[in-house]
Write a structure and sequence with these properties.
Layout: H1 2-18, H2 32-36, H3 42-67, E1 71-72, H4 73-86, H5 90-121, H6 127-130, H7 135-140, H8 144-153, H9 155-175, E2 178-180, E3 183-185, H10 189-206, H11 217-220, H12 222-230, H13 232-247, E4 251-252, H14 255-262, H15 266-291, H16 301-308, H17 312-328, H18 330-339, H19 341-373, H20 377-391, H21 398-418
Parallel strand pairs: 1-4
Antiparallel strand pairs: 2-3
Helix pairs in contact: 1-4, 1-5, 1-13, 3-4, 3-21, 4-5, 8-9, 8-10, 8-19, 9-10, 10-15, 10-19, 12-15, 13-16, 13-17, 14-15, 15-16, 15-18, 15-19, 16-17, 19-20, 19-21, 20-21
């Protein structure tokens, strides 16, 4: 079932990219109309797509997927963006992109499993310690609304948000579990902190009013909005498939949810995905309306469905409904964001806060995992590789340096073990 599911997702993702219906890379979305409207050839589009996506697949999507048993969605859809744009136009392109996309999805699933199985056969099995990469993420993810508040409204308000979030977290620990008759309800500390933090951020954001006359962007690009709505059957099917795959523990939409899922904390992962979805609304809506090209997972709420609804069949139905509603109300959402510029701006700040939090948490997690694999060598190697990557102009995305470094340390100690220069810690 998993092979069939990943094959269909890979095929449909590549076909949607080929037809210019949806692409995952936000930077690629504004370029798609250039080809559709005849100002850019297929070769130029393919070269641009490859330049934007390939490094992120290798340096971001796959390393995160290797640290857990869950596939990070970037591994799949950045790859299908490349496949779809490289495939020819017309009916031939639909066939070619579909076949290659399906093969890519299957290859990704089996390939990652093979790599993990190979690692487990090495003299020094470091896979168990590699899971420690995500430990700081699990503990720190609820802090990002406070960081976003600080980015947007200043350090003092960010600190106030962080203080209330910490209080909410500790109150959840003190009062949990709540006994109601024969029922016992556990309140999640991180989830409580996240809800309070997001509420404070949104209160601040909604207090900002537009200073200039509102321009109805949806009306300006009405033809492109209509194009997205015309392609809604493709999007509904993809939303349904991704929700089902998420409910089956096959994939996650972001590194925070991925690490929480690997720990079995699905409710926390759902809240994190919900907050991330809110943060991505302005970006997805603005690029979709202005280009006529949507994202294959829309505003990413299909992951929320899969995380909260643990039944794949129910998640399949609800995921399709959710992305269909997104498309149906796309122009209405755009008009709402125009009325509340603070909420629109908070999207960028939420993404920036998540990126900063992940960069630090995953660097610490990478150091801890690498040092568990090879005491002393781990700290030495991860810090050295992080600084060298920064000096080299960050060829590897900063937040991926920790996981990649931990994997490299695992490979290194196996080589050293073979030549007699390393003894695994007891």
């Amino acid at each position: 079932m998993k092979l069939a599911l990943i094959a269909i997702i890979g095929a449909l993702g590549a076909i949607m990219a080929n037809k210019g219906i949806a692409v995952f890379n936000d930077g690629l979305r504004p370029i798609m109309p250039e080809h559709r409207e005849g100002r850019m050839g297929r070769k130029e589009l393919a070269a641009t797509s490859f330049a934007m996506c390939f490094g992120l697949v290798i340096g971001f999507g796959i390393p995160f997927s290797l640290t857990t048993s869950v596939i990070l969605i970037h591994s799949i859809f950045l790859g299908t963006d490349i496949i779809g744009t490289f495939s020819p136009d017309g009916k031939k392109g639909i066939f070619v992109s579909g076949i290659i996309g399906a093969a890519y999805g299957i290859g990704l699933l089996l390939g990652l499993e093979s790599i993990v199985n190979t690692f487990e056969l090495l003299p020094v099995n470091f896979m168990e310690n590699l899971g420690a990469v995500g430990d700081p993420v699990v503990a720190a993810f609820a802090a990002f609304p406070a960081l976003a508040t600080g980015f947007q409204f200043g350090v003092k308000k960010g600190l106030l948000n962080l203080t209330f979030s910490v209080i909410a977290r500790q109150l959840a620990i003190v009062v949990s579990p709540i006994i109601l008759g024969s029922a016992s309800i556990n309140i999640n500390p991180e989830g409580s902190a996240l809800i309070v933090g997001m509420a404070i951020l949104l209160i601040y954001a909604m207090r900002e009013k537009p200073e200039e006359e509102i321009v109805d962007i949806a009306s300006v690009f009405s033809e492109r909005v209509s194009r997205i709505k015309k392609n809604v059957p493709y999007l509904i099917l993809m939303g349904a498939l991704v929700s089902a795959a998420t409910a089956s523990n096959m994939m996650a939409g972001d590194p925070i949810a991925l690490n929480l899922m690997s720990e079995g904390q699905y409710v926390d992962a759902g809240f994190a995905a919900l907050a991330r979805g809110i943060g991505f609304i302005p970006l997805i809506v603005s690029t979709a309306i202005s280009t006529g090209v949507y994202g294959p997972v829309g505003m990413t709420f299909v992951f929320v469905v899969g995380l909260f609804v643990r039944n794949p069949l129910i998640a399949f139905v609800l995921g399709g409904i959710v992305i269909g509603i997104e498309v149906l109300f796309l122009d209405a959402i755009a008009r709402f964001l125009d009325k509340f510029p603070g909420i629109r701006d908070s999207g960028d700040n939420i993404r920036n806060a998540m990126s900063k939090l992940l960069e630090i948490a995953l660097l610490v997690g990478g150091m801890n995992a690498a040092n568990a694999i090879a005491p002393g060598i781990g700290f030495f190697a991860v810090i050295g590789l992080y600084v060298l990557n920064d000096m080299a102009g960050k060829p590897v995305v900063s937040m991926a340096v920790g996981p990649i470094s931990a994997i490299l340390v695992g490979v290194l100690v196996n080589i050293l073990s073979v030549v007699g220069l390393f003894t695994p810690p007891v």
